[in-house]
Amino acid sequence: MVSDYDQNLWKAVLEELKNTIPERLYNLWFKETGILSSSNNVLQIHVPNEIIAKKISEKHLQDIEKAVFKCSGSNLKIEMVALAPNIQQAMFDFEQETMPKLPEAALSLTPAPPSFPPPSLNKHYTFANFVVGHSNHLAHAAALAVARAPGVTYNPLFMYGAVGLGKTHLLQAICHDLMERNANYLMVYLSCEEFINEFINAVEQGDVNGFRYKYRHADVLLIDDIHFLAGKERTQEEFFHTFNTLYNAQKQIILSSDSPPSEIPELKERIVSRFKWGLVTQLNIPSFETRVAIVKKKARLRGVELLDEVCQYIAEHIVSNIRELEGAVNHLVAAADCYKEELTFEFARRALRDMITIHEPEVQLSEILEVVSRHFNVKLSDLQSKKRPQSVVTPRQIGMFLAKKLTKYSLQEIGGFFGGRDHTTVLHAVEKLKEGQAQDPSLRNLLAELEKEIFLAKKL
Ligand code: ADP
Ligand code: MG
Questions:
Q1: Is residue 256 helix, strand or coil?
Q2: Which H or E run includes 17?
Q3: Cα 93 to ligand 2 centre (Å)
Q4: Rounded CA gap, 254 and 223, in Å?
Q5: Among 70, 151, 173, 372, which is disulfide-ready with 252 (CB 3.0 to 4.6 Å)?
Q6: Which residue's CA is the nearest one to ligand 1's atom 19?
Q7: How many alpha carbons fall within 13 Å on the CB side of residue 115?
Q8: Are 192 and 223 in contact (CB under 8 A)?
Q9: Contact 119/98 with Cβ under 8 angstroms?
């Protein structure tokens, strides 16, 4: 945004110029000028096209500098910025003809101002922290290639995939990599929503040129979740021109989306086709092995070395979203820390129960019955009978307890399954074992062991 002070300064400078140069020349060169920005003693003036920029620079720079000094008391450097596209771009953008008239692209004669704020990034989203597997190796390789040679290999690079599969991570990894190796890149990284909001604000504040100037001077433009352009016609139009300007200048464009270009709803065909000009690559659901590696990596980032079986347990139960995988690791590490407990398989299972019950396979009553029967060496038919010797009663009660804990069956249904008993018998068994468990660590271990067996048996 241009401050009121700068606006007024330029008005005063123009008044001054009117007095110092012939009216005809003033009308020819200065009538459509305005202030674009001022920073570090540089005043940027926008002019309608390159010819005027050239003329003013050749003939009237000193007049302007003098007038600026007179009005502001400072010696400011003056830079001209032409707003019209050059001819090549006009040819390239022939499709513009079919569109409602917009002020043209901002193209600078001078180097772009270094006024980009550094992108705000998650420091962990680096290439080093990205686990590569079959599901993502193409996207990873493309991201790396683009980071190493922006504008040269794949342009645009379009990465798509479901939520939580690493799109944002890869975009930010490119930013980190670029920043590490060359701090001078003008890099613009933002979400599509931010892009839309900024554009709307620019329109409201009458500063569309400022908006264009900013985006069309990026060396690398990264927009996350570009599918949010769906249905936003005006922003699509603006984005289209930004895309063309950058592409034409061989600046790198990198986009992420939840679906491939042609499946983004209500997206103009000419944008869809441009998205396909470079490389379109997909991030898939990682395999079990990759998920285990990601769990390990995430734990290590938190300074914790997880047992293999714990990593595998998490990776088995959380399949389709790496963000949830990471959430599970965080939850687990925090819980172990909080309860000052060792992070064993059993602890992990308990701690993650709430998080991943929905993903746990549903336990069947028959599965509980089998594990109990095998463990106590009691016949299935005995467990389901009305027999009452202690050697059968205890295992049956344990079966009822586990059934209540691990399934959604009612007390009545469980009673029916274990030999046609009523719900009070089941309730009695459940309470007895709850109490016993609280007092007797060996019983607690036994129940935990059986639970584990039931889940392991399910996997086989
Ligand atoms: P998206 O943008 O696709 O929804 P994110 O990039 O936000 O997904 O990823 C979600 C979480 O999963 C992040 O914490 C990210 O670090 C992590 N993640 C995704 N893929 C990987 C991977 N291959 N290696 C390590 N972490 C990953
Ligand atoms: Mg994302």
A1: strand
A2: helix 4-20
A3: 31
A4: 6
A5: 151
A6: 166
A7: 19
A8: yes
A9: no
Cα-to-chain-centroid distance, residue 366:
43
Token output for 136: 């993502």
**Helix/strand/coil for 106:** coil
Q: Long-range CB contacts (< 8 A, 24+ apart) of 89-93?
A: 89/244, 89/245, 89/248, 92/244, 92/248, 93/241, 93/244
**Dihedrals phi, psi of 248, to nearest 5 degrees:** -65, -35
Half-sphere exposure for 263 (CA within 13 Å, toward CB): 8
Q: 165 CA to middle of ligand 2, Å?
A: 8
Please tell me the distance from the alpha carbon of residue 30 to that of residue 113, in angstroms, as a whole number: 22
Backbone angles phi, psi at 159, to 5 degrees: -110, 130
Determine whether the shortest distance from the Cβ of 166 to ligand 1 is under 6 A: yes
Distance between CA 377 and CA 375 in Å, rounded?
6
The pLDDT value recorded for residue 450 is: 92
Ligand 2 centroid distance, CA of 161 (Å): 10
Which ligand has the minimum distance to the alpha carbon of residue 167? Answer: 1
Helix (H) or strand (E) holding 78: strand 77-82
The residue written with tokens 């390159």 in the block is 50
**Separation between Cα atoms, residue 167 and residue 390, nearest integer Å:** 59
- Tokens (6 digits) for 422: 């009523």
Helices (H), 205-358: 208-215, 233-248, 269-275, 288-301, 308-317, 322-339, 345-356
Q: How far apart are CA 184 and CA 180, in angstroms?
A: 10
pTM for this one? 0.60
Amino acid identity of residue 124, one-letter, is H
Beta bridge partners of 188: 221
The DSSP call for residue 385 is S
Distance 76 CA to ligand 1 centre (A): 47
Instruction: State CA 392 to chain mean position distance.
Output: 56
Q: Please choose, from the candidates 453, 295, 285, the residue with its C-alpha nearest in 3D space to the C-alpha of residue 375.
A: 453
Low-confidence ranges of the chain (pLDDT < 70): 1, 84-116, 183, 356-361, 458-460
**d(C-alpha 31, C-alpha 54), whole Å:** 15
Output the DSSP codes for 441-454: HHHHHHHHHHHHHH
| CA of 224, nearest ligand number | 2
Q: Which long-range contacts (CB under 8 A, 24 or more apart) does 428-431 make?
A: 429/396, 429/397, 429/398, 429/400, 429/401, 430/400, 430/401, 430/404
pLDDT at residue 111, as a whole number: 45
Tell me the helices (H) and strands (E) count for the chain, helix number first.
Answer: 21, 9
